[in-house]
Each structure stands twice: as structure tokens, then as C-alpha cells.
Amino acid sequence: MSAEKTKKTVPYTVPIGPVHPALKEPVMFTFGMEGEIVRTVDFAPGQTHRGIEWMGMRRNPVQIVHLTDRVCGICGIVHSISFARAVEQIVGIEVPERADYIRTILHELERIQSHLLWAGVAAHELGFDSLFYLAWRVREESMDLIENLTGNRVNYGIIQVGGVRRDISDEQRPLIEKGLAYYEGLLDQMATLFLEDSTIRMRCRDHGFLSEDDARKLCTVGPSARASGLNMDVRQDYPYCAYGDLDVKAILPPAETGGPRGDVYDRIIVRLLEIGQSVGIIRQCLDAMPAGEILWEPKMAKLLAACKKADGEAIGRVEAPRGECMHYVRMAGKEAPESWKIKASTYSNLMSWIPMLQGEQLADIPIIVASIDPCLSCTDRVTVVRDGKPDILTKEDLTRLSREKTRRLMQ
Amino acid sequence: MARLPMVPELLKQLFSRPATNAFPSRHLPPSVTGFLAKVASGEATIHPPVPTPPKFRGKIVYDREACIGCTLCLKVCPAHAIEFIPETKRIRIYITQCIFCSQCNDICPKDALHMSPDFLLATENRYAESQIVE
């Protein structure tokens, strides 16, 4: 190879994705590398677009609530609450207080399981598989609890426009208490296993740094923003469901652990502390939960008629385990909404990858990418089609391109 | 000095029971059918299956006699899994399409639809008898 050519290949590019074992979900990364060091970062989401909004715009709100359960595999209830709150604002539905408390309890149970899932994935990305198995074993307790309360482990189907579909019975309360006691007893152990471990500290401290200023500029949300020192949490800033009655404060990395530094280690701290906070919130909910109705209108036909008459637009905002999630809905006197737009929390967090990854080593990419807890399947709302041609080439397209090339060469 | 708090935890786990659900038999039997025959005759025992939680949403159960053919369930089914048969004025439910949300159970005025705890539904044929409820 000539000297000039060698010069051109440095810095060289490393593509990772769209589907890669180091990434949990499809996204296309292009890294400009200089030796082991990442110099430039570019990424292209949109690899798992499923057209769920399109499906929603052909269905009525009662049907869409079940679609929203399936926007994300982990935060099932977040999207449902967010959508239901948007529709409730348009139709002018007042959710019964008990339903608000049940929503809050499930919302926090979901946060517990989501954060534990993330903790396991993070450990796995570091090559610490025993801790990964331990975190996921511990997570089962919350999954079982959710299954008992809602009837399913993943697609809960408990939220309905105007309330919830299932009550929490007196027999289920001791089960929740038991689950909470289990997690309370476990928090110290988890903190020790994650935060005092030398390997985790070596790999995560001062890696994937995101400054407070960058976090603000790039509109980072959720635990990633809080780890950088931004005091923001939808539950605290714009209370919804029962959060207005409860004591909820945004969790920042405490000063005794070195204050908010904005590295991967701080993101672990914030998420672990939030598990404890969620346990506390569920406790408060169980104590303060009033008796009463759980649905604004138990007759679905009447609810559908009310939705059909509604005209207007609204935004439902919810603090998902990954950050703020938003649903915009516009209804215009038809059964189906005229417009429905989902902004998943990861959408706001994607851009913070760029400052986080610059200057890091190739081997740090998986943990830093995982550190914002990316959920790309719920984020992808668009697939790019240029000049009528999609980016995805099927087998037929490739055959056609191949034949065209043969013809070109024959001329 | 390197701190590894996971090591004592792992040593402890060496002596604890597995956290996963037990397989029906402790070891792989030489013949599965032979083992099942032994279970049927009471010679061998299996680990009982893990029970589903109360109000679990499994395969749908349809009470054809109670149904009045009002088609309200078609209106709320998010997956379009229910078909109305005009000749008989009854419905047909495709389990392969069903997403187990039980919304049709809620809206049914005659309480003709229920969810069973039956969840082992996989087959190779989407139109198999077990995949269509009518």
C-alpha cells in the first residue's frame, strides 16, 4: 500500500450495527477512530420502525390503549398512561382518585423492574455475567408482582382511558408489602455489589462523561440527565397521577459519592437510588389509597361515544424509567384520533451519545451506549425513504441491482 | 486492593437452591413417553407446573349460547381478531391474532367471553382447530 493511501485510512471508520451483538437493539453507528480512541460519532436510528402510529390512527382510543402497551417491551404502562392522559384531557375525563393511585403503584413497580433490568444489562456489557444473573433473578420478584396485579408479565393491559381495568384487592396488598420488604432488604446488598466493586468502578468511573451544560443543551432526560446534575423529573416538576399528593424529589448522585460527575458510574448510582425511591412511593400509595371507583365510565360503549364527540388536542407527559415520555393526540370528532405522535424518552437521550463517546476507547462503547438505557424500538417513529426508495434493500432489490450492473457492463 | 463483593455472594449461591422453575423431571428420562406413562400410573412423580396467577389472561373461552351477536366486541378488539358470521349471528375468534387484552370480555353485555388460564397454544397451523374459537 502506498504511503498516501495509508495516510488516508487514518483516522479510519468502524461501523457498528445496524444489528450487532454489542447493541441490544438495532441502531447504526459509524465511529471515526484514531487508534483505539473514538474521535467522531455518528449514528442512524430508524432501523426498527413498525408504524404503530399509523395503526393507531385507524383505531379508536379503547383499542389504541392496547397498542400503546406494545410500543415498548419494558415500559408498557408508561406509554399507556401517557396516551390515556392525553385523551382524558381532550375529552375532559376526571380520573377517579383510586385509579390514580393504582396507576402510580404500577408505574413505580415498572420502574423497579426496568432499572434492575438495566443494571443487569450494564453488568453484562462489562463482562460481569454473575452480577447480570443476580440482578435479573432479583427482578423476577417485581415481575411476579406485576403479573399478579395486572394478569400478565409484560403487556399489562391494565390502563383504560378514564382509569384502570383492575382493582388492587385486599388479598393482593400483603403480596405488595412482601415484595416491597424484599426490595428494601436487598437495596444495601445491591449497592455494595454494584458500587463497591473494583471492576465496575474501574470501568465506569470517569467514562462516558456528559457535562451538565451538554446535558441541558442536548435536552437529555431522565436518569442520564440527573446523573449529570440536572434537577429534573416530571414527577416532581409536573406531577401527574397521584404524584401531587406524594413526596417525590428528583434523585441526583449524592455528594458523598463524589457528587454529580455525569459518568456511567453516576448513572448506576441514580438508578439504584431510584429503586429505593420507588419502593418508598409505593409504600406511601398503599397508605394513602382511597376507596372508590376505578373507572370514569365502566361502560366502554359510553366511553367510546364520549371520545367520538371530543374535539381538541393534548399532550400526555410521564416520567418513564428512561426519562420523559410524551404522547400528542389530536381528536376531531371521529372515532380514530386525527393525529397521534409518540416521543419516547430515548429519543431525547440519543444525542447525548456523541459527547459521551468522544475520546473513549473502542472497548468502552458497549457500556456507554447502554448507559443511557436506550430503547430504540420505542423511539423509531420514522423510516427514511429518499426519492421514493427506502434505505432497506430486499433480496429482490439486490437481484435487480445486480442485473442492472450486468446490463451496464454489457453496453 | 481490589474489592470484589460478588465473590462471597457467589460462594453462598453454591449452596442454595436454583432460583429457576424446576423441570418436570429431575433428570432427563431415557424415554419421555415411558416416563409420562409411569407418572400416569403413579410410579413416578413430576415437579408440579408453576401455577398461573389469578385472573391470568390466557386462551379465550366463548359461550355461544349466551352470545346475542351484538358485535360490540368487534368494535374494541385492537387486533381485529374477531370475525362476525352473519348467517349464524355469532362470532369467530382467531387465537393467532388475539393479543390477550381481554377488552372484549369487558364490553360483552351478556358476559359470553372469558379468559382461561390456558397458555400453551403454539401450533404449526394457524387455522388449526385449537386456534379458532367459535
Compact summary:
Chain A is α+β, with helices and mostly antiparallel strands and 411 residues long. Chain A has a single domain, classed as Cytochrome-c3 Hydrogenase, chain B (Orthogonal Bundle), CATH 1.10.645.10.
Question: Overview of this structure, please?
Answer:
The complex is a heterodimer of chains A (411) and B (134). Chain A is of the alpha+beta class. Chain A has a single domain (53-341), classed as Cytochrome-c3 Hydrogenase, chain B (Orthogonal Bundle), CATH 1.10.645.10. Helices cover 50% and strands 13% of the residues of chain A. Chain A has helices at residues 3-8, 52-56, 61-68, 76-91, 97-125, 129-150, 172-195, 198-204, 212-217, 222-227, 234-237, 264-288, 300-309, 345-349, 353-357, 365-371, 376-379, 395-410; strands at residues 12-16, 28-34, 37-44, 159-160, 163-164, 311-320, 323-332, 339-343, 385-386, 389-390. In chain A, the strands form four sheets. In chain A, strands 1-2-3 form a three-stranded antiparallel beta sheet. Chain A has a three-stranded antiparallel beta sheet with strand order 6-7-8. A two-stranded antiparallel sheet of chain A has the order 4-5. In chain A, strand 2 and strand 3 form a beta hairpin. The two termini of chain A are 33 Å apart. In chain A, 48% of the residues are buried. The mean pLDDT of chain A is 89. Chain B has 134 residues and is α+β, with helices and mostly antiparallel strands. Chain B folds into two domains: 22-49, no CATH class; 60-133, Alpha-Beta Plaits (2-Layer Sandwich). Chain B contains four helices and five strands, in the order ααβαββαββ. In chain B, the strands form two sheets. Chain B has a three-stranded antiparallel beta sheet, with no helix packed on it. Chain B has a two-stranded antiparallel ribbon with strand order 1-4. In chain B, a hairpin with a 4-residue loop joins strand 2 and strand 3. The longest helix of chain B has 10 residues, at 32-41. The radius of gyration of chain B is 23 Å and the shape is elongated. In chain B, 17% of the residues are buried. The model of chain B has no long low-confidence stretch (mean pLDDT 90).
